[in-house]
Structure formats: C-alpha cells, structure tokens
Queue: 3 jobs
Job 1
Amino acid sequence: MRIIFMGTPEFAVQVLEAIIQEGHEVAGVYTQPDKPRGRGKSVQYTPVKELAMEYNIPVFQPERVRDPEVVAELRTLAPEVIVVVAFGQILPETILNLPPLGCINVHASLLPRYRGAAPIQRVIIDGETESGVTTMYMAKGLDTGDMIEQRVVPIDRKETGGSYHDKLAAAGAELCLSTLQKLAEGTAPRIPQDDRKSCYAHMLNKAMGELDFQKPAEELERLIRGLNPWPSAYTWLQGKSLKIYEAEVVKSETDSHGMNDMPGTVIAVDKTSFTVQCNPGALRIDSLQLEGKKRMKTAAFLLGYKLSAGMRLGSGLENTRDN
C-alpha cells in the first residue's frame, strides 16, 4: 500500500517503523519543523524525521500543512492512505478527502474517552486502571472520527507516563498494521463515537506539576507518576525547585492521632527517604532532582543535604520550619 505518514514525537516512531518493516511503500513523511532545543539551542531533528532519514524516505516539514502548495504536493505523491500519529497540526478537509482510503489516525486512548493532546499522562493522573489505543478515520472535529479498531492496555499500579507511553506505542504499531490490512481488504468497519462518553485531555504544561500538599497523598502520587519523566511534578525546598519522580503513599501519625503537622511538613527522615505530610496521608519520597543537580535516589540526596523533620516544602517557604 502506498502511504504518506504524518507524525512528530517518539510515540509515532514505532508506528512508522512497523509500517516500513511490513513492506508498505512510504512515499513521504511529514513532520513538524526542526526546532532549537536544550541549553545550547542547537537545532534537533524530530524523532520521526531521524527514522525516515535512516530509510532514505523523503521528509517534508511545512510550517502549515493546509497551505495550497502543500496540498498540491500531497496530490502529486498520490497516497492511497495517510497515516497520522501525533503530527501536531490539524489537517484541512482538502487533505482529509484526498486519499481514496482516507486519513487514519492512531490515538493513544480508548476513544471517545480522553480525546486531545495528553491522554497517556491523564489516564494515570485520573487513576484509571486501563486505557489503550484506537485507530479511526479522521474527521473535521478533534479526535471525533469513526473508530476502526481498539486495543486495551492495562495500567500497572506503579505505571509512569514514560512506561505507559512505551506500552501504548508498541500497541499502536501493531494495531495500525491490523487496520491497514483491513483497509486493503475492504473490511475496515466504521464505528461512530458516543460523544456523551467523551472527555478531553488538555496539553501538558510545567505549571500543572506543582505539588499542592493540601491535597490527598493518593492524588499527588498519581500526579507524580503521570508526569514522570516530563514535565515532572515538583515542589520547593529552601527556595530551590525540587522535582519528585518516585513516591509512595504512607500513613502518618497526623492522620491517625489527630496531630497538627501542616501539609508540606517533613514528618520523618531516614537513610533512604523522607516523608511529607499531605491532606490526608503522606508521601515517602524515593527519587528526586534538586535544582542544579542530577536526578538521583533520595538516599544519595540525603548523603549531601541536611534535611530534618519539621522542615517544610512549598513556594514561599525558603527557610520555614515547623516547631
């Protein structure tokens, strides 16, 4: 089958690799323009572009895929189907209607649940026990097109955004090949979405990772896992940002004995971890990264940082300590 592939991040790489290995003809790859990244602001290729170049597949990086010259270019390439995976631009109807077999999207949720930009992280933050991937015919709305197939992927108790991303990427690659086969055979179904069951997964940003210890420990632990590795959950320790990557929900004496340790207070420190009061419950912090330092286990952090019970975490608490 002659395919145009549109995708940008790491999640799309496994799908493109699977399509290539299956023997389909990839006539071209469309991905977002290269952008400067890191402290040195050096220009880096998108993950999808890097893979396409390995296989000598033509790469196109338009600023606006809806521009008339881009649409004309796609017509010249004459794809039978366009496969879209986290491309990062909305396709106009002129492109949606261009390939005879349609534009197919691989979406990282069990639609109609978790439409939008960040379904992988949101299902963990929300405490779901399973999600998955969906292939669908693309339509004018955002993730609203008729579904073709779905694959359920359980969410482990200690799942992170990073680990679940990798599981869904692998599942999405397998599901995409199945869908392409059904399209070629003319057996691909059209299953309308029930909009009443939909919810939206908004794009991630760094601000959403700030830990509010006035919230329950279980809710904060899910936030930490969902935002690991990016953009990461964080708090403040003596005026410096402190990213939290791993934490465990534990009971605290404040909860069981009616004590009055304020949320955000360090209530226990041992050789391998420290524990922070929440509302209710507490979090034992097992992995972190202090501003200006590398990510490390809390045990290594405590070897070089004097932390004691009574200190408090949070913004505006540079030198605060509960007595």
Job 2
Amino acid sequence: MGITEFCSNSNSIGKIRYFKGDRLYNEKSLYEFNQGKIPAKELVTYDSSLMNLQEITKDEIESTKGNAEQIVAIIIRPEIEVSFELENNSEFQFCGYDLVEYLTGISAITNCGADWGDALDYDMLNEYGLIPDYRKAVMTQLDLAENYPDESHAYCEIVEIWRMIN
C-alpha cells in the first residue's frame, strides 16, 4: 500500500502499521545519486519506489521471523513522542523519521538526489539515513515546503520508522 492510499484512510493516521520487505543497502549508484551526502551503509525508509514493502498484520509478524526479509513498523503523522507501544517492545528498534511525499510515496531524504540545499541538513542524518528526532523532522518538513514551493517532493508526511530486531 502506498502512502497515498494509507493517508486517504483517516483511520490509518497515527496508527502502527507493519510491513515486510527486503533490506536496502546504500549501493554505489544510490550513494552517487544522493551526491555522497547520505553515508549510511543501510537505509531504512518507507519509500515506495526504493522499497518493495508488503503490509502484514501484527499476527503475521511471528510467521516471518527468521526470513531474509525485514519487518518495519511505521506511523504516518506520529505523535510528538515516539510510540510508547513500540518503545516498550524489545523486538523493535527505533530508526528515525523519514519525510515521504504524500502523492508518490517518494522519500525526500533518500530518493530526491540530495539537492535540497540548506533545507535538509544531511549531517544530522543517523546511521539509517533518517532524521533522529521529531522536532528536526518537523522543522525540515516546513523548510522543504517553504524553500521549494514548486517541487512536489517537498510536500511530505512525517513517518516514524521502527525495525524489528532479528
């Protein structure tokens, strides 16, 4: 399910959803596409064009353990504090916040060529290529929209991302 369908269902906003998919490594072509500004070895994202994610239920998580796929938990338009439910679940690790364009599901961080000038501080990104704290994610979201009003990728949803620890 893309972010457009996800966001069009108002019952989904702020709720934990689970997805399985392959892991995404910052291979040479992606690293170069992002002008070398994202040094993370592995990217964790909710980008629908970089990742082939399939939504699963919470009950299906158990049957996917041990597979080569990763399990991510995402929250679109999260609360200010990280998810209490996931924070107290020792099976999941908080990875950070992504900024994902509402219409296309493309990450403004990992899939836009790292050409946002000062609107996105690439030095603040963590080891997963994500923004580490909510306040910085909100400020970046606002800066992108203000500084790039004609760029569709600048209009993003904040997505809180957790990854299951295998």
Job 3
Amino acid sequence: MATLRMLEDSGVIVRIDPGLEPNELINRCLYGTTDFMQWLENELPNIEYNPMYADLTPMEQVAAMFSEYVTGMNFSTDRRFKKLNRTPSFNVWELKTEDVRIFGWVPQKDHFICACADSAPKIKQHDLYEGYMGQTKRVMDGMDLDEPKYLEGMEYSDVISNEN
C-alpha cells in the first residue's frame, strides 16, 4: 500500500499547481490521475462554451477554481464542491464550474484527487453522472492507496478545513 506522497513520487498521481501568486499560500492539496491530467491538457481546451453566459473560458474557469480550492477559499456556500448523493457509498465528490464537471474523491482532509471530467452540457444532456461516479470509484478502488482510501461524510467540515 502507498501514501499520497508515494503515489506522487511514482507518477500515479500528479500534484496540480494552479499557478499561485507569490503572496498566496497553499492550504489544500489537489492531485490528478494521469488520465485526468491528459484530459486537462488535451480535452479541456476544446470544450465549447457560450461567452454570453460565461465571462471565462472553461480553461480559465477550472484554473480559477483550482486556485481557490488550493488557497483555502470557502466552497461550502456556492456548491462548486459537493458530495454526489446518487450513490453516497461511492464517496465521490464533484468540483464544478459553469461549463465543467470534475469527479474525484477526498483521501484525507484538505486533499482532493481528480479522477475524470467532462463538459457540463454533455454530462447533463446525456445524464452521465452515474457513469462518471462509477469510473471514479473504479479508479479509487484500483489505486494502491493506504486504507481508508477516502474520507466518509457528507459535510464540508468532514473534508475541508481552514476555509478563508
């Protein structure tokens, strides 16, 4: 079994660097699986969006959300970060922007592993939530991570601390 640090050192997961300003501090850790990182690089730039409804491109939306998550901004009041209730036993959480949905889990407090993602319109139109939750669960189960592999709980305070 492995720790997050061991998985990062072996390249199984990658720590996401949202490009913080010099005066910003890291309060939480954000990781991506290698598949997620490929999606981030290859698919995210191609997500279509309507500039009439979003001031930022999907890439800019995700970059801003990642920065806010890592620096400890408050996520408990605007539903950008939530546990998905369709299959609560899977312990899958969602990070979301106007145009993007990112699925992952919380292996320890203030740490999130991004497993998969897609455009919000596509997920909603084709009702793909359960498929992405299942995919996230398979990734989690297949990862050689020390038990318990995830934190249980429905409340933000169960998985996030130090909200600014």
